[in-house]
Amino acid sequence: MTDDAPRRLRVLAAMSGGVDSAVAAARAAEAGHDVTGVHLALSENPKSFRTGARGCCTIEDSHDARRAADVIGIPFYVWDLAERFREDVVDDFIAEYEAGRTPNPCLRCNEKIKFAALLDKALALGFDAVCTGHYATVVVRPDGSRELHRASDMAKDQSYVLGVLDDRQLAHALFPLGDTETTKAEIREEAARRGLFVAKKPDSHDICFIADGDTQGFLAKRLGTAPGDIVDEAGNRLGSHEGAYGFTIGQRKGLRIGHPAPDGKPRYVLDISPVDNTVTVGPVESLDVTGLTAIRPRWCGRPPTAGPATYTAQLRAHGGETEVTAELVDGTELRVTFTEPVRGVAPGQAIVLYDGTRVVGSATIATTERRARAGA
Prior knowledge:
It is found in: Cytoplasm. One of its GO terms (molecular function) is tRNA-uridine 2-sulfurtransferase activity. The protein starts with 9 loop residues before the first strand and ends in a 6-residue tail after the last strand. By secondary structure, the chain is an alpha/beta fold. The chain is globular. A hairpin with a 5-residue loop joins strand 8 and strand 9 (about 235-240). It has helices at about 20-30, 60-70, 80-100, 105-125, 165-170, 185-195, 215-225; strands at about 10-15, 35-40, 75-80, 130, 135-140, 145-150, 175, 230, 235-240, 270-275, 280, 290-300, 310-315, 320-330, 335-340, 350-355, 360-370. The strands form 3 sheets. Strands 12-15-14-13-16-17 form a 6-stranded antiparallel β-barrel. It has a 5-stranded parallel sheet with strand order 3-2-1-4-7, with helices on both faces. Strands 9-8-11-10 form a 4-stranded mixed sheet, with no helix packed on it. Helix 1 packs parallel to helix 2, helix 1 packs across helix 6 (about 185-195) and helix 3 (about 80-100) packs antiparallel against helix 4. The chain contains 7 helices and 17 strands.
């Protein structure tokens, strides 16, 4: 959130216990805002210590956030949103995999938790904005509308996982790390200067609610075994699996086919069918996607103009950009054509459209179109 005439805001700073959110809260306080820190207790069974945990939901993280708030000199609270997180993020994650799709829980968390449940509670308590340590920028246009843009440090840009935010949510979002020319190394140096001992704390990664990083094991405990076949594009049985949910489009390792393909080349997961519980594999060329249809579009600020238009698109959190032509059909369906074929695109993933550095919006991939192979 920016303004031509900065005013003192009541800001609720979401503090995960990491260096980014701590510095973001410190910057907001230094800017003169009335800042209160809050740590979201999202795990119903948090680990006491970070050993073996890779996310940001441990008790240790809560303690780290509290110590950072003490150094900054701001009030601090812990809010229990574990039940809401389980329903909106964890249960959705499991259901999506069970349906043969590949979800992104970080987008879901931003949409349903940090900028819905948390923001709604903050506004009800009289706060003006929610502050997070995301690397992204909110720009206020002359007419008062807001735009979401990429961060100055492209290596840490997180606008992809914020592509689900709408105009109302952007109006109450504050991203102090993305509004300045800065890198992650400089953020750590700044944290050290401020006396924040989290300056050297490793970044969280992977999925926060899967402590050991074993997604397949996490799903197996909740969905059980469901034996099925691994087949080639012609339907010939090549092997078996214990659960189609354990595979993702584009996966190469762990296929357990048992013997090489006739051409001696590796095989990749091409399709996951929950209907007949089969996993289809084939050559890498068969992963080429030329277009897709996406549903549930959400626009960051003003919606796109009518008719087809050229954008760049990002298909995963740490992926690059690719040029596309996209058109909104009937207000509910986004049809996208790629200028050059892309690989590893799976239903359930989010596609985020950009106009330069501006985030146009996000939609959930429903179906993909593949390029026909010669001789196939």
